[in-house]
Amino acid sequence: MKGYGEKKVFNKNKVLFHQGETGKGFYYLTEGEVKISVISNEGHERTIDYVRQGELLGEQGFMNAPYATTAKTTTTSTLYFFSDQTFNSLCSEIPEASIVFTNSLIMKVRLLAESIVIINAPAEYRLAHFLYKLYRKTGEHNLKISQIALGHFIGTSRITIYKILKQLEQKGLIELKNRDIQLLNIEELESMLNLFFHSSSLSEKQKTTIKPPAI
């Protein structure tokens, strides 16, 4: 993809696009890191993902659709920008590119939907969701991430992160090895999150179907 997009180098803290802004295209990250965030209904910014080397971002902005998130570099980063015209040319020469784009877009839409639900959940579920999301993105059971970074991501203290990790370890879901987190039971972690999303969905349905008593 490098040979088709427009190469761009951005310094740290450069906003690539804002949530709600009309899309002009999407990016492919080759070096650095980009933070993805959304604005909650209360007006608070919440980080929902970090894009790393070899990943796409801003796929929602294809065909002038509005960006669903805000993207900001966390360090000096190199990206390739693809306008609609450039991407269409790429797909005509390499049809497989459309499959890569579609799969990435589907994953991002699902991530966004889950993140909106999980954003106000108890810290235990926010952390479990983040660990599961890292596994889905990397395919790795051994996650190398500090407790400080985890606390920053889900918006809580390192002490709280440590307590939750110990609880998950006692449940047999993870194992703490030095600074690494070993995922032991992906199925149970997924089941835990599915149960939460299901209960949240039922709660929302009840809010919309239960009518106040007539006076």
Topology:
Layout: E1 6-10, E2 15-17, E3 25-31, E4 34-39, E5 45-51, E6 56-57, E7 70-73, E8 77-83, H1 84-93, H2 96-118, H3 123-138, E9 142-144, H4 147-154, H5 158-170, E10 174-177, E11 180-183, H6 186-209
Antiparallel strand pairs: 1-8, 2-7, 3-6, 3-8, 4-5, 4-7, 9-11, 10-11
CATH level 3 topology of the largest domain: Jelly Rolls
Order of strands, main sheet, comes to: 1-8-3-6
Q: Can you tell me the residue ranges where pLDDT is under 50 for at least 5 consecutive residues?
A: 206-215
For the sheet with most strands, the description reads:
4 strands, antiparallel
> What number is the mean pLDDT?
85
Molecular shape: globular
Report the CATH superfamily of the largest domain.
Jelly Rolls
Range of strand content: 15-25%
Q: Helix and strand string, N-terminal first? A: EEEEEEEEHHHEHHEEH
Total domains, how many? 2
Terminal CA distance = 64 Å
- Tell me the structural class: alpha+beta
Give the radius of gyration. Answer: 19 Å
What's the total number of strands?
Answer: 11
What's the helix count? 6
Please tell me about this protein's structure:
The structure is a single chain. The chain is an alpha+beta fold. The chain has 2 domains: 6-118, Jelly Rolls; 123-209, Winged helix-like DNA-binding domain superfamily/Winged helix DNA-binding domain (Arc Repressor Mutant, subunit A). The chain has helices at residues 84-93, 96-118, 123-138, 147-154, 158-170, 186-209; strands at 6-10, 15-17, 25-31, 34-39, 45-51, 56-57, 70-73, 77-83, 142-144, 174-177, 180-183. It has a 4-stranded antiparallel beta sheet. Helix 3 (123-138) packs across helix 6 and helix 4 (147-154) crosses helix 5 (158-170). It is globular. The chain starts with 5 loop residues before the first strand and ends in a 6-residue tail after the last helix. The model is unreliable at 206-215 (pLDDT under 50).
